[in-house]
Design brief:
CATH topology of the largest domain: Aminopeptidase
Strand content: 15-25%
Distance between the termini: 51 Å
Oligomer: single chain
Number of domains: 3
Number of helices: 8
CATH class of the largest domain: Alpha Beta
Radius of gyration: 23 Å
Largest sheet: 5 strands, mixed
CATH architecture of the largest domain: 3-Layer(aba) Sandwich
Order of helices and strands: HEEHEEHHHEEHEHEEEHE
Number of strands: 11
Structural class: alpha+beta
Strand order of the largest sheet: 7-8-9-10-11
Shape: globular
């Protein structure tokens, strides 16, 4: 971690003594270089990168924001006691980019698999490391060999063959028990970048649901809307809703631009309307208006 361990220790002490702080409150203009910087350019403030690592490792969390600035605090102050953290390990010498990258992969990729639940080694973002398809497969096989993960075969949707995913080895029993789980049929409006939906291939394999975020798609080519939200009911996607907040009429209104149903789900219209009312209430809206 480019010698950031002492900086992280100072940050944790100051947070404990002073409460939530932003990177600008930590007056230290030292710069650091790592794999995240272009070759030969150390442009990142050490305290900013140290905060990112602490957040990534679960030692700090975002307490609040002022404008676009994030303020961090200790997780135990925000959420109570947590498991004892792992001690910082000395990283490779600063400037040894290959050793630094390997150390990062060794620590972060297993955490990525645990966070994903079912991780797709075919995805370019696998492990949040820049790798080729062959390197991703090698990383996946290494995790299996080391007992960190197991292969899981998932039957694809219509026209798709079976696909292999990685599951955390420690959660295999939970995965088997989940086969008997019957979730309550509660409606949930998911944001376009929700963790469940942003791996589009996994989404299609597990749920047979084809979804794409169209914010950067030219308007003439959009099928739905730029911020269309998938609607999950229990363990099935039943619809998608394009909605927006209109604050310009004396009070916020949830404006529904369009609703698109999955096959065989149109009978849930009343349930969807009630769900939209609850969503609007949570957002502080006065009403729901459908225009599409």
């Amino acid at each position: 971690m480019s010698g950031l361990e002492p900086v992280m220790t100072v940050i944790l002490r100051r947070l404990a003594e002073e409460g939530p702080l932003s990177s600008l409150d930590l007056e230290d203009d030292r710069r650091t270089e790592g794999w995240w910087d272009p070759e030969g350019r150390a442009g990142t403030r050490a305290v900013r990168q140290a905060l990112e690592w602490l957040w990534h490792f679960g030692r700090v969390a975002i307490s609040h924001r002022r404008g676009g600035r994030r303020y961090f605090d200790l997780v135990e102050r925000m959420w109570g006691e947590v498991a004892a953290p792992e001690p910082f390990e000395a990283g490779p010498p600063p400037g040894d980019r290959e050793a630094e990258w390997q150390a990062y992969v060794k620590r972060v990729v297993p955490k990525y698999v645990r966070a994903m639940g079912l991780a797709n080694p075919r995805a370019p973002h696998f492990g949040w490391v820049e790798t080729s398809a062959a390197e991703r497969l090698t990383l996946a096989e290494r995790l299996v060999e080391e007992g960190e993960a197991v292969w899981v075969e998932v039957e694809g949707g219509e026209g798709r063959g079976a696909s292999l995913y990685l599951a955390p080895a420690a959660e295999v029993d939970d995965l088997v028990r989940a086969e008997e789980w019957d979730p309550e049929p509660v409606l949930a409006f998911l944001p376009p970048l929700d963790n469940l939906v942003w791996d589009r291939e996994r989404l299609a394999d597990l749920f047979g649901f084809d979804y794409g975020w169209e914010a950067y798609v030219p308007p003439a080519r959009r099928r739905y809307g730029p911020y269309t939200c998938p609607v999950l009911r229990g363990d099935r996607f039943v619809a998608r809703v394009d909605a927006r907040l209109d604050r310009g009429r004396g009070g916020a209104v949830l404006v529904v631009n369009g609703v698109w149903w999955e096959p065989g789900t149109r009978a849930l219209e009343r349930e969807l309307a009630e769900g939209l009312d609850r969503w609007a209430a949570q957002l502080g809206c006065l009403s729901v208006e459908t225009v599409g």
